[in-house]
Specification:
The protein is α/β, with parallel strands linked by helices. The chain is 33% helix and 23% strand.
Length: 315
């Protein structure tokens, strides 16, 4: 609180922290995302500080070691610190969150969503046949192989800076990256092609920031003021769909929801990693849960289950 000194315990003063401690991964993008939340809290008169943490995913632990796979590896330690009271808030890219919250923890706010789409970043102008495109995402690989079979897809890993460095060194000719991540890092590559929704359906939650807090207390009440209703309903529709079909960020599932008047529209696609098998569905409904259920039923009726099961076995 303004005027208080830093020498006091953050738990002193009528039970309210002097500063909310925001847990985040240590990558440049994660820190930028957490700082965005801190800046918005400051506008509300709420002081905060960042607490960078290393997750299992950052240490390279195999996804098979966690029940929620790749997603859980990037949030597990942060959620544990939140539950134990070591931090007051946790900031995640919404696409990294598993489809359910741990007991006692809630997504207190979903900030206004940034551009949710992907972009194709290349070292030189033009994308001729034989161009080598790097991405580790099965979702991106599958959709590129289907829409642009003339390209060569190569697995490439690392944070945004690492992948851009590999592009600069010529290890690949291009990358598929999230537009929101580039914007939050202040990066504007000279050769960047937006990929339309018809060609590349984004990951569920892509572009949105989710802020977790314990279910009760000052922190959840403070951060609720940052919640953006249209972004929240889109997040909930996409997240619910993932739970219903059993997909995830490591599987070839794309989903994009948006509020349109009094309805929520949801588009989703499930595709085999080679781009050959496709299940696609779209629907509108009054709420997030209703539209997610409708689209999930359509996807499963069109063969999404076996596609996702085969992708899990091959992951």
């Amino acid at each position: 609180m303004p005027g208080e000194t830093c020498s006091r315990s953050p738990r002193e003063g009528r039970g309210v922290p002097l500063r909310l401690r925001i847990g985040t991964r240590r990558s440049a993008l994660a820190l930028a995302q957490a700082q965005e939340v801190a800046s918005r809290l400051a506008l509300l008169g709420v002081e905060s500080e960042l607490v960078p943490m290393v997750t299992s995913g950052d240490r390279g632990v195999p996804a098979s070691n966690h029940r929620t796979g790749l997603k859980g590896l990037f949030v597990l330690e942060i959620e544990r610190a939140l539950a134990a009271g070591g931090i007051d808030l946790a900031v995640h890219s919404a696409k990294d969150l598993p489809s359910d919250d741990p007991e006692g923890i809630r997504v207190a706010a979903v900030l206004e969503r940034a551009a949710p789409f992907d972009v194709l970043v290349t070292r030189e102008a033009g994308v001729p046949a034989g161009t080598v495109i790097g991405t580790s995402s099965l979702r991106r690989q599958a959709q590129l192989r289907r829409s642009r079979p003339e390209l060569v897809i190569r697995d490439i890993r690392g944070n945004v800076d690492t992948r851009l460095a590999k592009l600069e060194r010529g290890e690949v000719d291009g990358l598929v990256l999230a537009a929101a991540g580039l914007a939050r890092l202040g990066l504007a590559p000279p050769f960047s092609i937006p990929l339309p929704l018809e060609e590349m359906v984004p990951a569920p939650g892509q572009g949105a920031l989710a802020v977790q807090a314990r279910s009760t207390g000052y922190a959840i009440e403070a951060v609720r003021q940052l919640d953006h209703a249209p972004s929240r309903v889109a997040f909930e529709a996409e997240r619910r769909l993932v739970a219903l079909v059993g997909g995830g960020c490591a599987l070839p599932l794309g989903a994009y929801a948006e509020r349109r008047g009094d309805a929520v529209r949801l588009l989703a696609v499930v595709m085999s990693p080679d781009g050959g098998d496709l299940a696609r569905a779209q629907a509108e409904a009054p709420g997030a849960d209703e539209v997610a259920r409708e689209v999930a039923a359509l996807l499963l009726a069109r063969g999404a289950g076996p596609i996702l099961a085969a992708a899990r076995e091959g992951a």
